[in-house]
# Entry
Amino acid sequence: MWYRIHSHFLAVILLLSGMLACKPQPGQLQASNKPKSAQTVRVIASDAGFGYEIWNDGKRVILQRHIPAVEGNLPFPDSLLARKTGELCAEKIRNGIFPPSLTLVEVEGVFTSQGKSLPKVP
# Structure
């Protein structure tokens, strides 16, 4: 009888210590624990073109002055492309991906969906 109580008590202690060990520490960033609140995409003027910012709860979390995943520092040629790319980035944040890296294929997809092609480095 004593052995059963002792082994159950030990199991509970081990379980609790395991849960505490897995608990994220304050200030520790984990993509899966990111709040899924609404992000705001703002188009900005940037270097003879456009870029975007993503805001979350009154804080700017992304400032993108150039087309991501493209060689060189090329701004977006129009505000619609900047907004659509920013919305894709914000969607990744909402899905718990942070930082929300975009691939060249994803950026090309945004451009081709608007009937445009990626600009080339001069």
Remarks:
- The radius of gyration is 23 Å.
- The first strand starts at residue 39 and ends at 46.
